[in-house]
Description:
Two copies of one chain form a homodimer.
Chain A lengths: L6 H4 L5 H15 L6 E2 L11 H14 L15 H12 L11 E4 L2 H7 L10 E5 L3 H9 L6 E2 L4 E2 L3 E4 L17 E5 L11 H14 L2 E5 L25 E6 L12 E4 L5 E2 L2 E2 H12 L5 H9 L3 H27 L4 E3 L5 E5 L6 H12 L1 E2 L1 E2 L10 E5 L4 H13 L3
Parallel strand pairs in A: 1-15, 3-6, 3-7, 7-8, 8-9
Antiparallel strand pairs in A: 2-10, 4-5, 9-10, 11-12, 13-14, 14-17, 16-17
Helix pairs in contact in A: 3-9, 4-9, 5-6, 10-12
Amino acid sequence: MFRINENYLKxxxxxxxxxxxxxxxxYSSANPDKEIIRMGIGDVTLPLCPAVIxxxxxxxxxxxxxxxxxxxxxxxxxEFLRNAIVENDYKARGCDxxxxxxxxxxxxxxxxxxxxxxxxxxxxxxxxxxxxxVYVDSNAMSGRTGxxxxxxxxxxxxxxxxxxxxxxxxxxLPRETPDVIYLCFPNNPTGTTLTTEQLQVWxxxxxxxxxxxxxxxAYEAYITSxxxxxxxxxxxxxxxxxxxxxxxxxxxxxxxTRLGFTVxxxxxxxGGVSLHALWARRHGTKFNGAxxxxxxxxxxxxxxxxxxxxxxxxxxxxxNAKVIREGLIGAGYDVYGGVDAPYIWxxxxxxxxxxxxxxxxxxxxxxVGTPGSGFGPSGxxxxxxxxxxxxxxxxxxxxxIKAGKA
Amino acid sequence: MFRINENYLKxxxxxxxxxxxxxxxxYSSANPDKEIIRMGIGDVTLPLCPAVIxxxxxxxxxxxxxxxxxxxxxxxxxEFLRNAIVENDYKARGCDxxxxxxxxxxxxxxxxxxxxxxxxxxxxxxxxxxxxxVYVDSNAMSGRTGxxxxxxxxxxxxxxxxxxxxxxxxxxLPRETPDVIYLCFPNNPTGTTLTTEQLQVWxxxxxxxxxxxxxxxAYEAYITSxxxxxxxxxxxxxxxxxxxxxxxxxxxxxxxTRLGFTVxxxxxxxGGVSLHALWARRHGTKFNGAxxxxxxxxxxxxxxxxxxxxxxxxxxxxxNAKVIREGLIGAGYDVYGGVDAPYIWxxxxxxxxxxxxxxxxxxxxxxVGTPGSGFGPSGxxxxxxxxxxxxxxxxxxxxxIKAGKA
Lengths: 406, 406
């Protein structure tokens, strides 16, 4: 008789956004006249920009003619896209990354979930707390996280690194040595960043103890501060200890279009074996490339028009972030993030539990956000609002918060 | 110090199609005047049909307007596509499969590589021999296949089920009981099929011993024979023992457009836990949906125009298959497949090794095919030709084979 992977059964049951959806649905059914403003999920709302649309159309036309039709894509992605990525995201920032170190994929979620495959089974991971759930869940599914403690909301085998207002959301180096360290900056959910010097500390640490950093840079395009690195490879030595995961979801509105990439430098080795070779093997065996028309559209993001138009979209969302930030500060809240990221992380008032504040916002102000505790125990007492709504609704939400009523 | 997943190091080094590519490249460089006909790789060559192109364009237009823009897709795929799949691929054939048992994905290769994740670590797999390499390699990567024996070209922990002319390419039930059985029919590489009665034997066996069948039906659209099942769910009881993987690559030319789906019936359980719940969790954690525009295009394949146009493409390729089949028979070869599949499987002449025949075809006739031994030890002495080329080149290749020269 076959048996299942029992690690799946250890996963805590309710997925954060399902619970939110259920609560909102129930409230909405009971109060059909209320106009609910959604600032919970990190999904974009602006349509794809004209440069991307135009390239999608022309790529579709190519697929309609025998002489320009594209079948199976190269395993690592098309050269034209990998070259555009290297030029714009790496060479332009002084990072020594080459096109054959870029692996084009269908998105950052797939890559951040699948990357564990190439590490040993007893790999010990360290994560910031609060954290994007995929890093921990994907390790739990492959049996790398020990047992789950329902009360503490923690896995016995995971090293948690609290990020709270007390340490300015800068994680401290762990006492126990991890094998793999997940860092996401600008951070989801806190919206905070590390300076280049602060990130260099992590690179130096990883090199010293022989750990690999999985660096999730999905929100890189939202950085406005001067001293915040856009890539971990802006830190010295990172190419020997870091894998970087990037996405087109937030910088170009590709959440429903699906495109991302992962950088595995050839210098990143374990006992003479390059992780690049392992990831290439995984990519070649269990993936068959992102669609040609989507890769073509991804390259259009780097054209002069594409950069200008996606830049305008980011500015639109970041104006929302400013409105939220200033609105919340004006209403007397402690607020973090929202300067280099589309996420605003706030303290709940007077030690209110995150889920209680969720209920208050939903029921009294008809605003949906995300309880901080949903991202990990150190998120308790915090709350996340996202800047991906319309400018009009964002202003309206802040008016409700200021007035204390819907 | 972090460590790698050492199972990757056990994988035999050279990937079949890389070796072929290298050999062809070298011959081509040394003989630039020779016109080489490629019948090796299973990639389609006809452009996407008008119904699909039209829907791609209109979906791109939807992505350009705020009111029709699509962000993150539902985890399991859009209802409109899942409903079209259920109606056309299952209900129309009398299979009791519902829309929420369909998981839309970026392709059959990803699904057939990732499906092992939901099974126990010591899962014992059985595969036909010869076989599509992904089934075995993905299990090898997760340590489920034991040690690799270079001489025998076999893994110690895998149950191989030879499919040769001796048994009419119908695998025999294994003596040792497997947990998971991979079956692909119409078969890649042999192009042969099982009748409904022959497949029922496997379903009955799986139900009896408590095994799961992973049924790869990527070539279903090429079936022309009456008594060959299009889905394993045409067999009684299959919904309690089988997962079916399907693809848009070969029936609609989506090799570079990327779309597939996997059916995990809710009745498929292990000790009360449904595999559906586990796969849903994996899908939700490590994947973020296929692009909206691609899912929209997938649904267009099921429209009356889409069915007619893709049917014409399949007929075009199957005419090539007929030309190859008859050409080879006329030239005195033993030939299999090519009736319900775009693959023709032939015996090499006079016990010639598969790779020697590859060299002969390349150097003497300037035709590229795939050595049967590349698909497993029982493929030695066989050779695969594919019907995905142009009609003109297919005819020309057969003329060369008949003449015994280029």
